[in-house]
């Protein structure tokens, strides 16, 4: 299963930190890349630097028309999951989602109503207000585990630095 995250509605002056965290979470927990609905070169630079330093092949691609990207994804046989607290709970649809390449839409501001119709699944991680970063982390963890992978044990190839797990202190090694 391929997973790509679409960050929809990123506002440059307001959402830089959260969008960066969406990308870092996507990278760390198994997504192959992120489509960014914005002209924010700073987010792209930060995430590319993280990948260069810590390894892996995560990419960020800025887009200008999110609807076209969603339609292209679906034309290639992929499915679209929109994360929203108004959707069906994740455990109720996990079995349906697992066998598909997945574009996960994570909104920043109020999302356009069309996304609810374009998505194959409008999915909630509980039906209460919460962070989109937390929702993405839970979704990626649950989907990866259900497909037999543990995203918390992924080893990233390449990169300049590697953390050695330790009970106390920080141990970072240069490769």
Automatic annotation (TrEMBL):
InterPro entries: Alpha/beta_knot_MTases, tRNA_m1G_MTases_N, tRNA_mtfrase_aTrm56
Main EC class the enzyme belongs to: transferase
GO CC annotation terms, alphabetical: cytoplasm
Keywords, sorted A to Z: Cytoplasm, Methyltransferase, S-adenosyl-L-methionine, Transferase, tRNA processing
Reactions that this protein is recorded to catalyse: cytidine(56) in tRNA + S-adenosyl-L-methionine = 2'-O-methylcytidine(56) in tRNA + S-adenosyl-L-homocysteine + H(+)
UniProt EC number: 2.1.1.206
An example Gene Ontology biological process: tRNA nucleoside ribose methylation
Pfam families: Trm56
GO function terms (MF aspect): tRNA (cytidine(56)-2'-O)-methyltransferase activity
Location of this chain's protein in the cell: Cytoplasm
Lineage top rank: taxon: Archaea
Coiled-coil annotated spans: none
Binding site for S-adenosyl-L-methionine: 83, 107-111, 125-132
Family affiliation: Belongs to the aTrm56 family.
Subunit and partners: Homodimer.
Biological function: Specifically catalyzes the AdoMet-dependent 2'-O-ribose methylation of cytidine at position 56 in tRNAs.
HAMAP family on file: tRNA_methyltr_aTrm56
Protein name: tRNA (cytidine(56)-2'-O)-methyltransferase
């Amino acid at each position: 299963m391929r997973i790509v995250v679409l960050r929809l509605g990123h506002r440059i002056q307001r959402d830089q930190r959260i969008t960066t965290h969406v990308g870092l979470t996507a990278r760390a927990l198994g997504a192959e890349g992120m489509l960014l609905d914005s002209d924010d070169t700073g987010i792209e630079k930060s995430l590319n630097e993280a990948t260069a330093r810590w390894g892996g092949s995560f990419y960020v691609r800025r887009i200008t028309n999110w609807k076209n990207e969603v339609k292209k994804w679906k034309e290639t046989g992929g499915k679209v999951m929109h994360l929203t607290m108004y959707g069906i709970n994740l455990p109720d649809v996990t079995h349906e989602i697992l066998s598909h390449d997945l574009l996960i839409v994570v909104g920043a501001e109020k999302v356009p109503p069309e996304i609810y119709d374009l998505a194959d699944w409008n999915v909630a991680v509980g039906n209460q207000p919460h962070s989109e970063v937390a929702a993405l982390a839970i979704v990626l963890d649950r989907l990866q585990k259900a497909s037999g992978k543990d995203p918390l044990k992924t080893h990233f190839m390449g990169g300049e630095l590697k953390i050695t797990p330790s009970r106390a202190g920080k141990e970072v090694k240069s490769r």
